[in-house]
Amino acid sequence: MVMVQFFIVLIFLYIGMRVGGIGVGFAGGAGVLVLGILGAKPGNMPMLVIVFIMVVIIAISAMQEAGGIDYLVRLTERLLRRYPRLLVVTAPISTWLLTMMASTGQVSFACMPVIVGVAKENNIKPTRALALSVSASLLGIVASPISAAVIFFSGILEKNNHGWGYIELISVSIPATFFALLFASFFYLCWDRFKQQDQLNNQPYIKEESIHQEVLPGARRAVLIFIIGLVVVLVYAIVASPKLGIISHPVMNSGQVRIGVMMGVALLIVACCRVNVHKISSTSVFKTGMTSCICILGVAWLGSTFMDNNQQWLQAMVSGYLLHSPWLLALVIMLVSCFLYSQAASTQILFPAALSMGVAPGILVACFPATASLFILPNYPTLLAAVELDDTGSTHLGNKIIDHPFLLPGLITTLLSIAFAFALSLLI
User: Is it the case that residue 213 has pLDDT exceeding 70?
Assistant: First the structure.
């Protein structure tokens, strides 16, 4: 019966990928229905993770309507145009920083046309910068102090008193992902120049003007309000941490504060930046973010249903291998994550199960960047957007499933992040 259920999960994941978009979530929900008909008890729905994502999407959508996203992209554009020959380095680092701050990869969509434009102006192939930027946006979620994956993972660590918590998690994930991106970016910069394959086929120099509109009056104010909210969430999570004990009996936990602060940030942006609240739901961030919530709902529910109904079998058959091979665990997380469509969904489904099998929390923290392997299959929206926005034709998907230019840079940055995370976890 286990293999039958597993086969059904694979079938509906395949159907979801073929349908694409919000259909991924539809297929996941339908898969749970089929498993239920066969006698499986439906697993827990990832409602808390979805709420975490929703409130951040609401705040960022308000900031976008106020012009804040355009303002941040304008600052990024200035940096990229100032050092065009270092585009392979500055593009992914900028994307990682924006994603880490916003806790959603949706902001990377706005950066991609800038990356392509700067590359064309300087006769550089944009493929490498785009590929590394896609990886950077995925790793930025792992590093974000307010992402749903980080909040959920730190919560289960602190709940079970493993000695690891929010502070330790971000102390590992932020530097590990940053240095991995930095190392990979400089490697590819040197490699492409050594191989002389960074030129855009000697096409004529094309000077392009900024593609962004004028910054709205409330844009800077909206960004400032959002950053203050981010700092409040981060500071509260630190002072309310059981390890520090500054607030011994907090009235609200870190997740509740995150929800309240992000809703308050959205309200302040609407009130202080003259934002039409009725237009927030029409922003691109809101639409794509809520689509992601539906996808996570279906896929994570399908995954948790399979895991919950077969936990004893998995413990008996798999736990022995995973306990003695941390890199095998990281590989399993990478492979499963590329089907689950979300770092938060992967964290909710896999990490509690791994802890119940006896995997050390420090090893799980080191394997946390493995959840960013959504680039393996060429169906993730950020990856597809990079291909579509590169009008030079140098970035394209291959004829086979995994012969695309995002695979190797993504594997290098993810594996380096895991390696750095292992080293940092030993120090902490």
Answer: no
- Residue 231 CB partners (closer than 8 Å, separation 6+): none
Q: What is the DSSP string of 264-322?
A: HHHHHHHHHTT--GGGGGGSHHHHHHHHHHHHHHHHHHHHHHHHHHTHHHHHHHTHHHH
Residue 154 CA to residue 253 CA, distance in Å, equals: 12
Separation in Å, CA 182 to CA 28, 94, 96, 179: 36, 11, 10, 5
- Within 10 Å of residue 331's Cβ, how many Cβ atoms? 16
Q: Are 170 and 368 in contact (CB under 8 A)?
A: no
How open is the CA angle 46-53-277, to the nearest 5 degrees?
130
pLDDT digits (tens, 9 = 90+) for 237-259: 888 776 666 777 778 877 788 88
Distance CA 408, CA 138 (A): 15
- Domain total for the chain? 1
Structural domain that includes position 420: 45-198+213-426
In a domain, 300, yes or no: yes
Closest CA to 104 of 339, 277, 343: 343
Closest C-alpha among 110, 112, 109, 105 to residue 53: 105
Asked if the structure places residue 301 within a domain, the reply is yes
Q: Is residue 117 situated within a structural domain?
A: yes
pLDDT tens track for 331-378: 989 988 887 778 888 888 888 888 877 888 888 999 999 999 988 888
